Amino acid sequence: MFSLEETYNQAIIISRNIVEDIRFGRNLYLNPVEMCSIQICKYLDDDANILTFLNSVQDKNPYMYSHSANVAFISFVIGKWLNLDHLKLENLVRTGILHDIGKAKIKDSLLNKADILTLEEVEKLKSHPVIGYKILESVNTFDPEVLQGILFHHERMDGSGYPLGLKAEKINLFSRIIAIADTFDAITATRTYRKKNSPLKAIEEIQVNSFNHLDPHICQIFINNIIDCYNGRSIRLSNEQVGNIVYINPIDITKPIVQCENEYYDLSIEEDIEVVEFL
Question: What is the largest CA-CA distance in the chain?
Fold first, then answer.
Protein backbone atom coordinates (compact mmCIF):
# COMPACT_ATOMS: atom_id res chain seq x y z
CA MET A 1 0.00 0.00 0.00
CA PHE A 2 1.20 3.50 -0.80
CA SER A 3 2.10 5.80 2.06
CA LEU A 4 -0.34 8.54 3.01
CA GLU A 5 1.99 11.14 1.53
CA GLU A 6 2.31 9.25 -1.76
CA THR A 7 -1.47 8.91 -2.05
CA TYR A 8 -1.96 12.59 -1.26
CA ASN A 9 0.61 13.64 -3.86
CA GLN A 10 -1.16 11.39 -6.36
CA ALA A 11 -4.44 13.19 -5.63
CA ILE A 12 -2.73 16.56 -6.19
CA ILE A 13 -1.38 15.41 -9.56
CA ILE A 14 -4.78 14.07 -10.60
CA SER A 15 -6.48 17.36 -9.68
CA ARG A 16 -3.89 19.35 -11.63
CA ASN A 17 -4.15 17.10 -14.70
CA ILE A 18 -7.94 17.34 -14.78
CA VAL A 19 -7.86 21.13 -14.52
CA GLU A 20 -5.27 21.36 -17.31
CA ASP A 21 -7.16 18.92 -19.54
CA ILE A 22 -10.33 20.99 -19.18
CA ARG A 23 -8.54 24.28 -19.78
CA PHE A 24 -6.73 23.01 -22.87
CA GLY A 25 -9.79 21.23 -24.26
CA ARG A 26 -8.28 17.76 -24.03
CA ASN A 27 -10.21 14.56 -23.48
CA LEU A 28 -10.69 13.78 -19.80
CA TYR A 29 -8.92 10.70 -18.45
CA LEU A 30 -10.80 9.96 -15.23
CA ASN A 31 -9.70 6.42 -14.39
CA PRO A 32 -7.01 7.79 -12.00
CA VAL A 33 -9.82 9.39 -9.93
CA GLU A 34 -11.37 5.98 -9.37
CA MET A 35 -8.04 4.33 -8.54
CA CYS A 36 -6.99 7.11 -6.16
CA SER A 37 -10.35 6.95 -4.40
CA ILE A 38 -9.92 3.23 -3.82
CA GLN A 39 -6.44 3.88 -2.41
CA ILE A 40 -7.62 6.65 -0.04
CA CYS A 41 -10.36 4.36 1.31
CA LYS A 42 -7.72 1.89 2.50
CA TYR A 43 -6.81 4.27 5.36
CA LEU A 44 -9.82 3.26 7.48
CA ASP A 45 -7.90 3.37 10.77
CA ASP A 46 -5.95 6.55 10.06
CA ASP A 47 -8.43 9.37 10.67
CA ALA A 48 -6.21 11.16 13.23
CA ASN A 49 -3.11 10.62 11.07
CA ILE A 50 -4.92 12.02 8.03
CA LEU A 51 -5.89 15.22 9.86
CA THR A 52 -2.36 15.63 11.23
CA PHE A 53 -0.87 15.06 7.79
CA LEU A 54 -3.20 17.52 6.07
CA ASN A 55 -2.24 20.15 8.62
CA SER A 56 1.46 19.52 7.92
CA VAL A 57 1.11 20.04 4.14
CA GLN A 58 -1.33 22.96 4.27
CA ASP A 59 -0.31 25.69 1.79
CA LYS A 60 2.51 23.62 0.22
CA ASN A 61 0.60 23.24 -3.06
CA PRO A 62 -1.53 25.65 -5.12
CA TYR A 63 -4.96 25.96 -3.53
CA MET A 64 -6.71 25.05 -6.78
CA TYR A 65 -5.29 21.53 -6.56
CA SER A 66 -4.70 21.02 -2.83
CA HIS A 67 -8.27 22.02 -1.91
CA SER A 68 -9.75 19.17 -3.95
CA ALA A 69 -7.33 16.65 -2.43
CA ASN A 70 -7.94 17.97 1.09
CA VAL A 71 -11.72 17.88 0.72
CA ALA A 72 -11.49 14.30 -0.59
CA PHE A 73 -9.51 13.17 2.48
CA ILE A 74 -11.62 15.13 4.98
CA SER A 75 -14.83 13.85 3.40
CA PHE A 76 -13.49 10.32 3.68
CA VAL A 77 -12.85 10.82 7.39
CA ILE A 78 -16.37 12.20 7.90
CA GLY A 79 -17.87 9.35 5.89
CA LYS A 80 -15.99 6.87 8.04
CA TRP A 81 -17.35 8.54 11.19
CA LEU A 82 -20.84 8.20 9.67
CA ASN A 83 -20.23 4.45 9.12
CA LEU A 84 -20.81 4.62 5.36
CA ASP A 85 -20.20 1.38 3.49
CA HIS A 86 -17.08 0.99 1.36
CA LEU A 87 -18.68 1.70 -2.02
CA LYS A 88 -20.27 4.90 -0.69
CA LEU A 89 -16.92 5.95 0.79
CA GLU A 90 -15.22 5.50 -2.58
CA ASN A 91 -17.92 7.50 -4.35
CA LEU A 92 -17.76 10.18 -1.65
CA VAL A 93 -13.99 10.53 -2.16
CA ARG A 94 -14.52 10.81 -5.92
CA THR A 95 -16.99 13.60 -5.26
CA GLY A 96 -14.41 15.37 -3.10
CA ILE A 97 -11.69 15.15 -5.73
CA LEU A 98 -14.04 16.45 -8.45
CA HIS A 99 -16.32 18.84 -6.55
CA ASP A 100 -14.64 22.03 -7.78
CA ILE A 101 -13.61 21.05 -11.32
CA GLY A 102 -16.04 23.60 -12.73
CA LYS A 103 -13.56 26.23 -11.55
CA ALA A 104 -11.23 25.07 -14.34
CA LYS A 105 -13.46 27.09 -16.67
CA ILE A 106 -13.01 30.24 -14.57
CA LYS A 107 -9.93 32.47 -14.93
CA ASP A 108 -7.32 32.37 -12.17
CA SER A 109 -7.46 36.16 -12.01
CA LEU A 110 -11.04 35.89 -10.77
CA LEU A 111 -10.50 32.84 -8.54
CA ASN A 112 -7.63 34.62 -6.78
CA LYS A 113 -8.96 38.17 -6.81
CA ALA A 114 -8.26 39.92 -3.51
CA ASP A 115 -10.51 42.95 -4.14
CA ILE A 116 -14.26 43.04 -3.63
CA LEU A 117 -16.04 41.13 -6.39
CA THR A 118 -18.65 42.68 -8.62
CA LEU A 119 -22.11 41.08 -8.77
CA GLU A 120 -21.23 39.71 -12.20
CA GLU A 121 -18.04 38.15 -10.84
CA VAL A 122 -19.91 36.61 -7.91
CA GLU A 123 -22.39 35.02 -10.30
CA LYS A 124 -19.54 33.72 -12.45
CA LEU A 125 -17.97 32.04 -9.41
CA LYS A 126 -21.31 30.60 -8.40
CA SER A 127 -21.60 28.91 -11.79
CA HIS A 128 -18.84 26.38 -11.05
CA PRO A 129 -21.05 23.59 -9.59
CA VAL A 130 -23.23 23.59 -12.73
CA ILE A 131 -20.18 23.69 -15.00
CA GLY A 132 -18.57 20.77 -13.17
CA TYR A 133 -21.82 18.79 -13.23
CA LYS A 134 -22.24 19.26 -16.98
CA ILE A 135 -18.64 18.28 -17.69
CA LEU A 136 -18.95 15.01 -15.78
CA GLU A 137 -22.48 14.23 -16.91
CA SER A 138 -21.25 14.33 -20.51
CA VAL A 139 -18.60 11.64 -19.92
CA ASN A 140 -21.11 9.25 -18.24
CA THR A 141 -18.55 7.73 -15.85
CA PHE A 142 -19.79 8.37 -12.31
CA ASP A 143 -22.83 7.41 -10.26
CA PRO A 144 -25.69 9.94 -9.99
CA GLU A 145 -24.94 10.51 -6.28
CA VAL A 146 -21.44 11.72 -7.26
CA LEU A 147 -22.87 14.09 -9.86
CA GLN A 148 -25.46 15.42 -7.41
CA GLY A 149 -22.76 15.86 -4.77
CA ILE A 150 -20.84 18.08 -7.18
CA LEU A 151 -23.91 20.02 -8.33
CA PHE A 152 -25.30 20.66 -4.83
CA HIS A 153 -22.20 21.09 -2.64
CA HIS A 154 -22.96 24.81 -2.16
CA GLU A 155 -26.64 24.26 -1.34
CA ARG A 156 -27.53 25.06 2.27
CA MET A 157 -30.03 23.55 4.67
CA ASP A 158 -32.05 26.76 4.98
CA GLY A 159 -32.35 27.22 1.21
CA SER A 160 -29.81 30.06 1.05
CA GLY A 161 -27.28 28.20 -1.13
CA TYR A 162 -26.74 27.87 -4.87
CA PRO A 163 -27.19 27.09 -7.73
CA LEU A 164 -30.86 26.21 -7.06
CA GLY A 165 -31.54 27.33 -3.49
CA LEU A 166 -32.74 23.85 -2.53
CA LYS A 167 -34.42 23.08 0.76
CA ALA A 168 -32.83 20.54 3.07
CA GLU A 169 -34.85 17.51 1.96
CA LYS A 170 -33.56 17.90 -1.62
CA ILE A 171 -29.86 17.99 -0.70
CA ASN A 172 -28.19 14.58 -0.94
CA LEU A 173 -25.83 13.10 1.65
CA PHE A 174 -22.63 13.64 -0.34
CA SER A 175 -23.41 17.36 -0.78
CA ARG A 176 -23.93 17.72 2.97
CA ILE A 177 -20.60 16.04 3.76
CA ILE A 178 -18.66 17.93 1.08
CA ALA A 179 -20.07 21.23 2.36
CA ILE A 180 -18.56 20.58 5.81
CA ALA A 181 -15.21 19.37 4.46
CA ASP A 182 -15.10 22.30 2.03
CA THR A 183 -15.77 24.78 4.83
CA PHE A 184 -13.13 23.27 7.11
CA ASP A 185 -10.39 23.30 4.47
CA ALA A 186 -11.22 26.76 3.14
CA ILE A 187 -10.95 28.28 6.62
CA THR A 188 -7.65 26.56 7.47
CA ALA A 189 -5.94 27.44 4.16
CA THR A 190 -4.18 30.65 3.18
CA ARG A 191 -6.07 32.51 0.44
CA THR A 192 -5.10 35.54 -1.60
CA TYR A 193 -7.77 37.58 0.21
CA ARG A 194 -7.20 36.40 3.80
CA LYS A 195 -4.82 34.52 6.06
CA LYS A 196 -5.54 31.01 7.28
CA ASN A 197 -7.15 30.27 10.63
CA SER A 198 -6.50 27.44 13.07
CA PRO A 199 -8.54 24.21 12.86
CA LEU A 200 -10.25 25.23 16.11
CA LYS A 201 -11.61 28.36 14.39
CA ALA A 202 -12.83 26.18 11.53
CA ILE A 203 -14.59 23.79 13.91
CA GLU A 204 -16.23 26.71 15.68
CA GLU A 205 -17.42 28.13 12.36
CA ILE A 206 -18.91 24.77 11.40
CA GLN A 207 -20.61 24.59 14.78
CA VAL A 208 -22.16 28.04 14.26
CA ASN A 209 -23.30 27.14 10.73
CA SER A 210 -24.86 23.89 11.95
CA PHE A 211 -27.84 25.95 13.11
CA ASN A 212 -28.78 27.06 9.61
CA HIS A 213 -26.45 26.30 6.69
CA LEU A 214 -24.93 22.87 7.37
CA ASP A 215 -26.45 19.53 8.32
CA PRO A 216 -26.69 19.62 12.15
CA HIS A 217 -26.48 15.85 12.62
CA ILE A 218 -23.35 15.43 10.50
CA CYS A 219 -21.81 18.56 12.05
CA GLN A 220 -22.26 17.17 15.54
CA ILE A 221 -20.64 13.85 14.63
CA PHE A 222 -17.81 15.74 12.91
CA ILE A 223 -17.23 18.05 15.88
CA ASN A 224 -17.30 15.30 18.50
CA ASN A 225 -14.85 13.12 16.61
CA ILE A 226 -12.45 15.82 15.49
CA ILE A 227 -12.22 17.20 19.03
CA ASP A 228 -11.11 13.73 20.15
CA CYS A 229 -8.46 13.75 17.40
CA TYR A 230 -7.12 17.16 18.44
CA ASN A 231 -6.92 16.58 22.18
CA GLY A 232 -3.24 16.09 23.02
CA ARG A 233 -2.01 17.80 19.85
CA SER A 234 0.98 20.14 19.88
CA ILE A 235 0.14 23.80 19.23
CA ARG A 236 1.67 27.27 19.25
CA LEU A 237 -0.01 30.05 21.19
CA SER A 238 -0.21 33.71 20.27
CA ASN A 239 2.33 34.44 23.04
CA GLU A 240 4.79 32.21 21.09
CA GLN A 241 4.75 29.44 23.68
CA VAL A 242 4.50 25.87 22.44
CA GLY A 243 2.43 23.29 24.28
CA ASN A 244 -0.21 20.59 24.05
CA ILE A 245 -3.98 20.74 24.14
CA VAL A 246 -5.26 19.09 27.32
CA TYR A 247 -9.00 19.62 26.86
CA ILE A 248 -11.27 21.18 24.24
CA ASN A 249 -14.60 22.41 25.58
CA PRO A 250 -17.31 21.67 22.95
CA ILE A 251 -19.14 24.80 24.09
CA ASP A 252 -16.08 27.07 23.67
CA ILE A 253 -13.98 25.29 21.05
CA THR A 254 -11.37 27.97 20.39
CA LYS A 255 -10.56 28.31 24.10
CA PRO A 256 -9.02 24.96 25.16
CA ILE A 257 -6.94 24.17 28.22
CA VAL A 258 -3.28 24.03 27.17
CA GLN A 259 -0.16 22.74 28.91
CA CYS A 260 3.15 24.52 28.22
CA GLU A 261 5.90 22.64 30.09
CA ASN A 262 4.72 22.73 33.73
CA GLU A 263 2.25 25.58 33.26
CA TYR A 264 -1.43 25.30 32.34
CA TYR A 265 -3.46 27.92 30.50
CA ASP A 266 -7.24 27.98 30.44
CA LEU A 267 -7.80 30.10 27.36
CA SER A 268 -11.39 30.78 28.37
CA ILE A 269 -9.86 32.82 31.20
CA GLU A 270 -6.65 33.98 29.48
CA GLU A 271 -8.65 35.87 26.87
CA ASP A 272 -5.63 37.61 25.33
CA ILE A 273 -4.03 34.27 24.40
CA GLU A 274 -5.22 32.05 21.55
CA VAL A 275 -4.13 29.01 19.57
CA VAL A 276 -2.58 30.24 16.33
CA GLU A 277 -1.07 27.08 14.86
CA PHE A 278 -1.14 23.30 15.09
CA LEU A 279 2.32 21.74 14.95
Answer: 61
Co-location of 162 and 249 in the same domain: no
107 catalytic, yes or no? no
Does residue 243 share a domain with residue 132? no
The amino acid at 13: I
Question: In degrees, to the nearest 5, what angle opens at C-alpha 259 toward C-alphas 255 and 265?
Answer: 45
Provide the domain count of the chain.
2
Q: Closest Cα to residue 8, out of 44, 40, 45?
A: 40
Return the minimum-mean-pLDDT range out of 88-97, 108-117, 142-151. 108-117
Q: Are residues 224 and 248 in the same domain?
A: no
DSSP letters for 78-133: HHHHTT--HHHHHHHHHHHHHTTGGGGGS-HHHHT--SPPPHHHHHHHHTHHHHHH
> How confident is the model over 13-44, as pLDDT tens digits?
999 999 999 999 999 999 999 999 999 999 98
Q: Assess contact for 188 and 206: CB atoms under 8 A.
A: no
* Active-site hit among 103, 195, 196, 201: 103
pLDDT in tens, 105-124: 999 999 988 889 999 999 99
